[in-house]
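Fold Annotation — chain and its backbone
Encoding — discrete vocabulary of local shapes
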Amino acid sequence: YGYASDDVLNGLDGNDTLRGYAGNDTLRGDAGADTLYGGDGNDMLDGGADNDYLYGENGDDSLLGGAGNDTLYGGSGNDTLEGAAGNDYLSGEGGSDTYVFNSGWGQDTINNYDTTSGRSDTITFGTGIATDQLWFRRVNGDLEVSLIGSTDKTTLSNWYAGSVYHVDQFTTADGKRLSDTQVDSLVQAMAAFSPPVSGQTTLPQNYRDALEGVIAANWK
């Protein structure tokens, strides 16, 4: 347990519960299935190995799930959520939040339900992920964005239930941006094709002929 100061708490081995309370705290779960609570302040939470639960609570927090199938809740404030390796569940909750997704990070689910006035939420794709490697499709009421040629994907639950479930933009490491209002243009264009097969990390020529113009027109 932390105090009303800037604390550093390390869980080490075992299944730990760490609470930062007030202050700008650093909580590291390390090995084991840990539960971390940031409390007030701008906190850094790192779940480490295994299946962890991270709660940023109040403040502008940074949450890193680490290896394992983790569950991350940002709480209020402008938070950054990184599931890392494993199949993770991420919910930024209130504020303007950023979700980070990299190659090799598995299959994540994002619930971005947020009625905060003036918020601006973002999914940012890491280095090495190009705009023409991202495949957009509707799956029932969800939006699925997958990395072609791999099993990596992020699913935005209830996207088609309304804008309160949307992120406002998608960005790439090379500075490209796609707004939520442009997503359907990509979904509709890609619906004419099946996603490229496993190991196909670039679009086949016939896909490129049909899709390059749409991708370039919407990713700016």
About this structure: The mean pLDDT is 97. The CA atoms of residues 55 and 117 lie 22 Å apart.
